[in-house]
Design a protein that fits this description.
Shape: globular
CATH topology of the largest domain: Phosphoenolpyruvate Carboxykinase, domain 3
Bound molecules: guanosine-5'-triphosphate, sulfopyruvate, manganese (II) ion
Number of helices: 15
Helix content: 25-40%
Number of domains: 3
Radius of gyration: 23 Å
Distance between the termini: 68 Å
Length: 593
């Protein structure tokens, strides 16, 4: 038994005072036992076994439906080290507040101890965490999203390192009281805390997604970005995708888009051009490290998908629909009368008899949406029909190119290639995107979201830019190419100009051919772009005028953007790398009339 682990579990037990302690073994029996328990206590429902075998349905509390960026803290000893993009409270003070909240917070509940591995158990690129939680929902989700169980304890050994991840829904259960179907604490008592100096995570008050499944954003991004910086690798909010050309050549891409901006969809893309194939390796997080050959290798640290349900359909993402055939957890979708799920954008008629995500009768005719916009599915990655046979290769896959992007209805063209690594880092650093329902807060506001890491970078963003520049220096000629995309440009009537989804493969294929030195590009003020005819548009129903608009460099709009970009970069003060500031000056010069 790992002494540090034993000691920590005992400490937490003394502080949180649960009724019982359960060590998770990660078995199917354990999952089913907890599922039955939750169904028996009205927290969950089994979906119809014939329609969606072995699948659970949950409704969250209406206040607990997404990540809470304004309640997320990077608690470094020095405020400056958290940087201007993170909330900060001094570790002592934050721990005092949380210790007060944790005191007795698991009364009447079982405390689960979940040993989990991010990455295939035993891979040199993998890391171990242990989540303590009082939520059975979290245990079942962790079973799917990570590798859980006894084999992880074995890999940990007597003196192995692990990231302690403490979680409580923050709702002690008083004797004789019936539990709520989704226990959680009010927003002002929610705290998602990271102590990077100690590789420690303390989460309180929320049961949802990234707030509660601590292996995901808290560990694999916020804490791991700190580890990566110290140890010379990268923890990124990126999907990992393999493209296979008609001649059999394999390309690997890693793409960073902000939350609810298309990673899961692109990760499962089905190329529409004949002869091309694609395989999914990961849909949300990539851990990337330089290999002996000097190239970058990426693994997906997760074992499942926690994907946005609304908008997922047979036409937009058929591979996701097939993945969802069974063994799923659905949260905050519509529940149909015949025991299945539904959501907006599923491309099947709304059910005439159903319950909405708030548990009210719903028939598709009301103005209110039936599913919450951040309704999610949890499903094992192995069930994806296009999962790569190599998705668990402990060595990872060699990255040929990075893609950055965002959701922007104007200004940003369909695709740009960076002029070089530094310019690519500048594109990542100045990425901007409209906010989505993945965070509690307003939706549709344009904001800078550098590298899609704004809510996930666990240290000063200026230092993170420097880390990217240093990686480029180390990689030299082996550095991947960098592209920037925007699938979301709209016309005056508010319709998407680009068909997106499977058709995004046409842009990916241009990127592959750029990497192979086969495709043309022309220089524009924004970077390299496909000249007319370089994107294969055969069989695509997009007229020439629309294509022109999609690829148009709107220099006036870009000039208008310059002060905003300058102010964004200025936030990082003396920690903004001089090389990024120079990139900004070059852009300004290229845009000059
Ligand atoms: P997180 O899990 O929050 O990190 O999100 P994600 O980046 O994986 O986003 P996801 O692929 O789930 O897409 C979110 C929403 O964007 C869904 O409603 C999709 O239907 C929509 N979407 C994805 N790709 C495209 C696209 O190419 N074009 C358009 N118009 N919409 C897209
Ligand atoms: C995101 O918001 O980027 C997600 C969902 O992937 S969550 O797990 O809630 O962070
Ligand atoms: Mn995400």
């Amino acid at each position: 038994m790992n002494q540090k682990l034993k000691q920590w579990v005992e400490e937490v037990e003394r502080m949180c005072r649960p009724e019982a302690v359960h060590w998770c073994d990660g078995t199917a029996e354990e999952y089913d036992r907890l599922a039955k328990l939750m169904v028996a206590s009205d927290m969950a429902k089994w979906l119809d076994e014939r329609k969606r075998p072995h699948s659970l349905y949950f409704r969250s509390d209406p206040s607990d439906v997404a990540r809470v960026e304004n309640r997320t803290f990077i608690s470094t000893p020095e405020k400056d080290d958290a940087g201007p993009t993170n909330n900060w409270i001094a570790p002592d003070e934050l721990k005092r507040t949380l210790a007060g909240l944790y005191e007795g917070c698991m009364r009447g509940r079982t405390m689960y101890v979940i040993p989990f591995s991010m990455g295939p158990v035993g891979s040199p690129l993998s890391r171990i965490g242990v989540e303590i939680t009082d939520s059975a929902y979290v245990v079942c989700n962790m079973h799917i999203m990570t590798r859980v169980g006894t084999r992880v304890l074995e890999a940990l050994g007597d003196d192995g390192e692990f990231v302690p991840c403490l979680h409580s829904v923050g709702a002690p259960l008083e004797q004789g009281h019936k539990d709520s179907s989704w226990p959680c604490a009010p927003i002002e008592k929610k705290y998602i805390c990271h102590f990077p100096a100690e590789n420690l995570i303390w989460s309180y008050g929320s049961g949802y997604g990234g707030n509660a499944l601590l292996g995901k954003k808290c560990f694999a991004l916020r804490i791991a970005s700190n580890m990566a910086r110290r140890e010379g690798w990268m923890a990124e909010h990126m999907l990992i995708l393999r493209l296979i050309a008609p001649d059999g050549r394999k390309y690997h891409a890693a793409a960073a888009f902000p939350s609810a901006c298309g990673k899961t969809n692109l990760a499962m893309v089905r190329p529409t051009l004949p002869g091309w194939k694609a395989e999914c390796i990961g849909d949300d997080i990539a851990w990337i490290t330089p290999g002996k050959d000097g190239r970058l290798y990426a693994i997906n640290p997760e074992a499942g998908f926690f994907g946005v349900a609304p908008g997922t359909s047979r036409s937009s993402n058929p591979m996701a629909m097939d993945t969802l055939s069974g063994n799923c957890i659905f949260t905050n979708t519509v529940l149909t009368e015949d025991g299945d799920i539904w959501w907006e954008g599923m491309d099947v008629p709304a059910p005439a008899h159903a319950m909405d995500w708030k548990g009210r009768p719903w028939n598709g005719k009301s103005a209110e949406k039936g599913a919450h916009p951040n309704a999610r599915f949890t499903v094992p990655a192995a069930q994806c029909p296009v999962i790569s046979p190599d998705w668990e290769d402990p060595r990872g896959v060699p990255i040929d190119f990075f893609i950055f992007g965002g959701r922007r209805s104007s200004t940003t063209p369909l695709v740009t290639e960076a002029l070089d690594w530094d310019h690519g880092v500048f594109l990542g650093a100045t990425a901007c995107s409209e906010t989505t329902a993945a965070n509690i807060g307003s939706v549709g506001n344009l904001r800078f979201d550098p590298f899609a890491m704004l809510p996930f970078c666990g240290y000063h963003m200026g230092d993170y830019f420097s880390h990217w520049l240093a990686m480029g220096d180390k990689l030299g000629k082996s550095a991947p190419r960098i592209f920037y995309v925007n699938w979301f440009r709209k016309d005056a009537a508010g319709r998407f100009l680009w068909p997106g989804y499977g058709e995004n493969s046409r842009v990916l294929i241009w990127m592959c051919e750029r990497a192979a030195g086969k495709a043309a590009a022309e220089q524009t003020p924004l970077g390299l772009m496909p000249p007319a005819g370089a994107l294969d548009l055969s069989g695509l129903d997009v007229d020439a005028r629309t294509m022109e608009e999609l690829l148009r460099v709107d220099t006036a709009a870009w000039r208008n953007d310059l002060p905003g970009i300058e102010a964004h970069l200025a936030r990082f003060g003396t920690r903004l790398p001089e090389r990024i500031r120079r990139q900004f000056e070059s852009l300004r010069e290229r845009l000059a009339p």
